[in-house]
Write a structure and sequence with these properties.
Number of domains of chain A: 1
Radius of gyration of chain B: 17 Å
CATH class of chain B: Alpha Beta
Largest sheet of chain A: 5 strands, parallel
CATH architecture of chain B: 3-Layer(aba) Sandwich
Strand content of chain B: 5-15%
Distance between the termini of chain A: 22 Å
CATH superfamily of chain A: P-loop containing nucleotide triphosphate hydrolases
Strand order of the largest sheet of chain B: 4-5-3-6-7
Order of helices and strands of chain B: EEEHEHHEHHEHHEH
Shape of chain A: globular
Largest interface: A-B, 29 and 33 residues
Structural class of chain B: alpha/beta
Oligomer: heterodimer
CATH class of chain A: Alpha Beta
CATH topology of chain A: Rossmann fold
Shape of chain B: globular
Strand content of chain A: 5-15%
Number of helices of chain A: 8
Structural class of chain A: alpha/beta
Helix content of chain B: 40-55%
Chain lengths: 234, 229
């Protein structure tokens, strides 16, 4: 069991994020974790990538018109994230919530680097964001995650398939290559960012049991040990 | 033809940066007479046979509308607003400024990264964060900084609009209970940052309090010198 230090963001809330390539099953795992935390009566706030109502329209329009470059692609997602961060994530952290984020800054690090932005430029752009208390990285061999996506949903969107990178004119081919590049970025940052890796090839309940155990032994444990301002009642 | 430089990391996927055009930035707070000077300079240059393109803030087709929609209600956090303006400028950089420089045009920028930085710095943003963020911006040929006193700008503002604008008064900062005092305080704070940025980025300061013709004369002579280099 990985032992993690107390987080240094300094807010009474806790921030738990999930990362991984499309088809790694991270969203499923996060929603199961959410149920579990809510059943314990803990205050939970859930947020996901690319969902700020204000920025979403512009992003959609720009994607449709295919007018984004790697830099503006990166920045417009940073806008979306910042809007959610300033208006939702941060206030909930300050108010002592368990904030669950389906994708966080690492998604931007991985995708934007794959698109050709300078990695430290991307990191700087997101410097305002609090470091998570726990960052789960769901890992699986590429063929497994690709199989899950390509089996059920062959209709890939242009940017989702990384078509803007000009890797291949075939969306499925392009998607494979692009996902491979993103996985490489995740793998490369995993250690340095202190990701907790979860083997995403195992059965869903097994993974969830591991996720819950880690949350219980780290985030919930140091909250219960009286170092936190929030009372945990379970 | 010269090789262009970026302020920071630049656009790593833009490999070749030998372009024949020119980038002239006109900076200064609102009410310093920027737009008038830009439009007169444009006419002057076009008469002399230079092709001119204009750029500025909040003018990208990508985000101008989003910013305009969000600003009036003060719906946005400061970091979000900073990032939206950066995105707007990046979009113009790649889709307008660079193509124009490639084609040999003189690009006149009615404000650039410096105003965005000054506004953000007054509101407590970290300078190193901003410098990194705006690393995609090209280093212009020259920055002409129209310097005026806050009181002068206030008079011009009132004469033109009959009212003091919410953002130009820095009303979001809660500096004073009334608009008039808030405007002056905010503009003084802004001025301090412009002055610091002027040092750091080597602005050419032009006294903006003179007559419009006198200011234009100085603007032209600076640009002319540049074009004849």
């Amino acid at each position: 069991m990985p032992i993690r230090k107390r987080p240094n963001h300094g807010y009474p809330g806790r921030l738990i994020v999930v990362e991984g390539v499309d088809g790694s099953g991270k969203s499923t795992q996060l929603s199961l974790l959410r149920c579990w935390l809510e059943e314990q009566g803990l205050p939970v706030y859930f947020t996901e990538w690319n969902s700020s109502p204000l920025v979403k329209t512009a992003t959609k329009r720009a994607k449709k018109a295919r007018r984004l470059t790697p830099t503006t692609f990166s920045l417009i997602h940073a806008c979306d994230f910042a809007d959610r961060y300033e208006r939702m994530i941060l206030p909930h952290l300050q108010a002592g919530y368990y904030v669950l984020s389906d994708r966080y800054i690492y998604t931007a690090y991985a995708r934007d680097a794959a698109r050709g932005c300078a990695p430290d430029w991307v990191r700087n752009a997101y410097r305002f964001a609090a470091a998570p208390d726990l960052a789960f990285y769901f890992t699986a061999p590429l063929e497994v995650s690709l199989g899950r996506i390509l089996f059920g949903r062959p209709d890939l969107k242009y940017h989702e398939a990384g078509m803007d990178l000009g890797l291949s004119i075939d969306p499925v081919d392009s998607f494979r290559l692009f996902q491979g590049m993103i996985k490489e970025q995740y793998d490369r940052m995993s250690r340095g960012e202190g990701f907790v890796e979860i083997d995403a090839t195992r059965p869903i309940p097994e993974q969830q049991a591991e996720v819950r155990a880690i949350v219980a032994h780290t985030v919930l444990a140091y909250d219960r040990s009286g170092q936190s301002s929030g009372e945990v009642d379970c | 033809m010269r090789t262009w430089r970026w302020y920071g990391k630049g656009l790593p996927y833009v490999k070749e940066t030998e372009w024949p055009g020119h980038l002239v930035v006109i900076e200064g707070a609102d009410g310093a007479g920027r737009s008038t000077q830009v439009s007169r300079l444009r006419t002057y240059l076009e008469r002399r046979g230079y092709a001119v393109d204009e750029t500025g803030l909040k003018r990208s087709s990508l985000l101008a509308k989003t910013i305009a929609r969000a600003k009036p209600g003060n719906l946005l956090g400061r970091t979000t607003l900073n990032l939206l303006y950066a995105t707007d400028l990046a979009d113009q950089m790649e889709n307008q400024i660079i193509p124009a420089l490639r084609a040999g045009l003189v690009v006149l920028a009615d404000r650039y990264v410096y105003t965005l930085m000054a506004r953000a710095l007054v509101r407590g943003a970290e300078q190193t964060w901003l410098e990194g963020l705006f690393g995609f911006a090209l280093v212009p040929d020259v920055v002409l900084y129209l310097k005026t006193e806050p009181g002068e700008r206030l008079r011009r503002h009132l004469a033109k609009n009959r009212t003091l604008d919410y953002w130009e008064s820095g009303a979001d900062l809660g500096l004073a209970a009334d608009r008039f005092t808030s405007f002056l305080r905010y503009q003084e704070l802004l001025q301090e940052w412009y002055d610091r940025l002027a040092q750091r980025y080597g602005f050419v300061s032009i006294d903006g309090s003179g007559s419009m013709e006198a200011v234009q004369e100085r603007v032209r002579s600076n640009v002319q010198a540049l074009l004849e280099e």
